[in-house]
Amino acid sequence: METATTPLADRRYAVSLFSRLRTAKGQSNPFPIYAELRSRGDVSAAPWGGYLVTGFSLCDQLLRSRDWLEPDARWREQQGDGTRWTAASSREMSRTLPALNPPEHTWVRRSAGMFDRGSLEQLRGPVERFTSRLLDSLAERLHDGEADFNALVGEELPVATVGYWLGLPTSDYPRLRELTHDQVFTQELLPSASQLALSDAATAELRTYFKDLVRERRKNPGPDPVSRWIEVWDSMEPDRDRADDAVYFLTLFVLLAAQETTATLLSTMTLLLLEHPRQWDRLTVQPDLVPAAVEESLRYDPPTHVISRVASRDLVLGDVEIRKDEMVHLMVAAAHRDPARHEDPELFNMHRKPAHLAFSGGMHYCLGAPLARLEAQTLLHQLVTRFPRLTLVRRPTWAPRVAFRRLLNLDVALI
Ligand code: HEM
């Protein structure tokens, strides 16, 4: 494995690379930039301090190792006032599941108890119904010409699904979706001050919304996950306020985690298949290949391009020394195209059975992966059977983010 060159030269190079990556053009196709980064070695210096990891095997090992921690509340406080890590939204996120380290992470993750076979099966019927209803509205729009698949379907199915599961009123969906788009900035790689302000405001509104929800479910429990979490936390935590807090943080994070990521998967997968018409045509006659097409989409362009960790002690990564508390950014989308892991990695090929890190790995492995897969497979199955003649009108645009991909449109038509 190659090593980084001198840290200073490396950081200067990374600055120019990230400024290209943070534009709409860079997001439209970040992969040549990732290839450049990967060619400089598996580990290189990040522009703002810390390191970037692009090798698949190193990213995979790091996610599974107990030596690397989440940037938790203690770590964020250490970064000092005035940094992004002490913004109100970041402090709030520091109490959610993916920002916890053991032993707290272990109890909270156990309390979430999400998506065994039975609970997933219960969602299959509703997800099929929501999908078919959304595709009815797509059909109507396509009748008159082109339609924005991202707005009509990609962004709608995830909020309909998670909203139904949590038992939220449908009239709240548009606002919750907007708030999620704003809230995500605090989890981005380099949020600006104005993006952090948007995220802080969205977080405050979501806090009020979900605190009220938990209070209401405590009074009127039902057969929903929030009521179940209240029961679980009451058996673990004698202090009611603390139990309610724990349930609030779980509910908040689940809503945030379930929306943008899944919306990006649904639209990206549709885009990739429309850009590869031979594979699309194959799916229309062989829909049993749908799960494989979803996995290859998750490898080829995952919704989350970056996952971050900090060193629990002085460590050596590849042959780079990393000091305790230094941050590493796993560039998972770059790692997914690592030629040492995948043959012909730049080729979209649904016939491979790809290893990927789209849902992370190790103890923080995504708890919603079964639901995201259910939505993606249900949608793709219905799409290729109902709309075999779907075509792309123009390449979409992406929000200028780096860590969390977001398509802004996906214009399609029938041929
Ligand atoms: C395509 C859709 C999705 C993608 C790409 C995705 C991706 C991820 C990733 C990368 C992580 C780990 C972050 C880390 O290691 O620091 C994660 C964690 C998590 N995800 Fe997802 N996610 C998706 C959908 C969902 C859905 C639908 C839900 C819930 C219904 C969900 C709930 C969670 C939870 C609770 C965690 C925290 C796990 C932990 O820290 O122990 N995700 N997700």
Give an account of the 3D structure:
By secondary structure, the protein is α+β, with helices and mostly antiparallel strands. It has one domain: Cytochrome P450 (Cytochrome p450, Orthogonal Bundle). The protein is built from 18 helices and ten strands. The longest helix has 36 residues. It starts with 6 loop residues before the first helix and ends with a strand. 41% of the residues are buried. The mean pLDDT is 94. It binds protoporphyrin IX containing FE.
Keywords:
single chain; 415 residues; alpha+beta; Cytochrome p450; 5-stranded mixed sheet; 3-stranded antiparallel sheet; 18 helices; globular; binds protoporphyrin IX containing FE
Shape: globular
Percent helix? 55-70%
What structural class should be given to the helix and strand makeup? alpha+beta
Number of domains: 1
Strand and helix layout:
Blueprint: H1 7-21, H2 24-28, H3 31-39, E1 43-45, E2 51-53, H4 56-64, E3 68-69, H5 73-78, H6 88-93, H7 104-112, H8 117-143, E4 147-148, H9 149-154, H10 156-166, H11 173-183, H12 193-219, H13 225-236, H14 240-275, H15 277-285, H16 290-300, E5 306-311, E6 315-317, E7 320-322, E8 327-331, H17 332-335, H18 369-386, E9 390-392, E10 411-414
Parallel strand pairs: 2-8
Antiparallel strand pairs: 1-2, 3-5, 4-10, 5-8, 6-7, 9-10
Helix pairs in contact: 8-10, 8-18, 10-14, 11-12, 11-14, 12-14, 13-14, 14-16, 14-18
The structure holds protoporphyrin IX containing FE.
Residues 97-98, 109, 162, 253-254, 257-258, 261-262, 265, 302-304, 307, 358-360, 364, 366-368, 371-372 line the site of protoporphyrin IX containing FE.
